[in-house]
Amino acid sequence: MRKSINISILVLLITGLFSCNTNDSKDGDKGALASNAAEKVYVAPGEHDEFYAFVSGGYSGNLTVYGLPSGRMFKEIPVFSQFPTSGYGYSEETKPMLNTSHGFIPWDDAHHPDISQTSGKLDGRWVFINGNNTPRIAKIDLKTFETTEIIEVPNSAGNHSSSFVTENTEYVVAGTRFSVPVPQQDIAINEYKGKFKGALSFISVDPEDGIMSIKFQLMMPGFNYDLSHPGRGKSHGWFFFTTYNTEEANSLLEVNASQNDKDFIAAVNWKKIEEYVNNGGGKMMPANYAHNVYDDDTHTATSTMMKEVLVVDPLEVPGAVFLLPTPKSPHGVDIDPSGEYIIGNGKLSADLTIHSFTKMISAIENKKFDGDAYGIPILKFEEILRGTVKQAGLGPLHTEFDGKGNGYTTFFISSELVKWDLETLEVIDRKPNYYSVGHVMIPGGNSAHPFGKYAVSMNKITKDRYLPTGPELEHSAQLFDITGEKMELLLDFPTHGEPHYAAGIPASIIKENSQKIYKLAENEHEYAAIANGDARVERDGNEVHVYMTMIRSHFTPDNIEGIKVGDKVYFHITNHEQDFDVPHGFAMIGANSSGLLIMPGQTKTTVWEPKEVGVWPFYCTDFCSALHQEMQGYVRVSPKSSKLELSWSLGED
Ligand code: RUQ
Ligand code: CUA
């Protein structure tokens, strides 16, 4: 590999970073305001948006749902982070969702949502998202908009080249950003080179119930695997991963990992490996990772520790893995809707590199190799290159497509969104982004059928775009109309956490399936109180189980006596409402947990360990009726030595 580095770009990256200034911003605004932008984003009161946008929350650990074009925020879906609003990760039922091999982890860094597909089209069943920090992949059910499954990814670290799905959701794929010793061991960090490995995990998704299971892990050389995307159409069956730090440096990466003029895009023929694995290939290796599943009928999650994983050595499957040289530490790799163009966004580059899938296949067939890395053939750059978009901008990160022959690439350093023609590779338009754009999203952008009406750029720096809110500002997204030759800036809207990728989908695909209540008759929660007579309190040693019901505007039981200091009181609360949008809340004074928000027909549990004698109230936290303030009760707590028997009131006089 040649050693050279564009020092000026590196310096820009390290120091200058943000080339745009606020004066540009004012000019840009004028352009947008001169148009009918307001009309284009106006969704009249009571009207619905045309698209859902699922925007990653980055270090919030969650996923936020917005409407497009209005930019209105509809919901924050808790995924990897405890969420006191609903009690996710606090309720006894959902704590297992956050279980990992490292124990209970109440947070993660959530990056790249992707919506399930059938035949290359968004099907709106699930959205997947990766946890970077403690490697995990989560699945959110788009009927309930709840996280229903989380699988930990072993042998990985910084699970960043994730969680993208193949065109029939055969797999959701997760690649490690940081290579690590596999299996983990106590060795010197400077033994990195050659000893650390990069695991690329192919997680199968059951076509019926969506259950995830790690089919195999491809054990690659110890590079950093940054992003990935599936092939589609003609390239279906392949998956592409960018790499950087092919130098395998282990310190001062900002210099040492930028020595090679080109890093690689790893092309993985997963169909070939699947076949190899189905025929008994690969090695089972001991592992320890959590698989957490939430059951909609029992309203309860279970966590199972998995003990092994199937590992595949790429050298054992000749013809399955190739390396595509790609300039300047590529960040995103994006595949156009036809599956022909493989776009490498070299983040230290001014040009965009486009490889051709067809040329890649013929280079493979004709053995146009340029050596190998750890035995994996490196294809000749000139043989696979389709062309470059010249001087497109500085620091390309990510590209999306409109399905009409155009690519839209974000340039972090020059802070702009650039539209270019996939055929001519000419730049068509560029618009400044405020400021320092990361990702861009076009609904359906990672599929064979994008909906090329809007593009949303997600920016890293907000500065003066909104009223100041102290040193910390929310990140900012910008909505563009991309139906014309030129892009038109329509709207800025704040996003929660740090949005990395987002996934958009026409609302029509999912809104009819959106569930309104949980049917009480189908509630199989172990501690549910369904029939009127089910409400009760039971003691089992120092554990007390309260089977409680709630309906406007009453808890049953409402007063409980006979609880003692040192007891562990489980409130299992079932909401008997069967109307859309009538939750009740539950909060107990002094509980070391969050309140609960319980949806109609649902059961949730919280634990309270009273520490002092007295009479302690609980109440409903959601203003549910005119008599909401009356929705309350008391627990009498007696000394540990008390002989007072349990008693409770069922709401009669
Ligand atoms: S990565 S920009 Cu996960 Cu590009 Cu955020
Ligand atoms: Cu129930 Cu307020």
Automatic annotation (TrEMBL):
GO molecular function, one term: copper ion binding
The encoding gene: nosZ
Keyword Ligase: no
Enzyme Commission designation: 1.7.2.4
Keywords on record: Copper, Metal-binding, Oxidoreductase
Subcellular compartments: Cell envelope
Protein name: Sec-dependent nitrous-oxide reductase
Pfam families noted in UniProt: nos_propeller (PF18764)
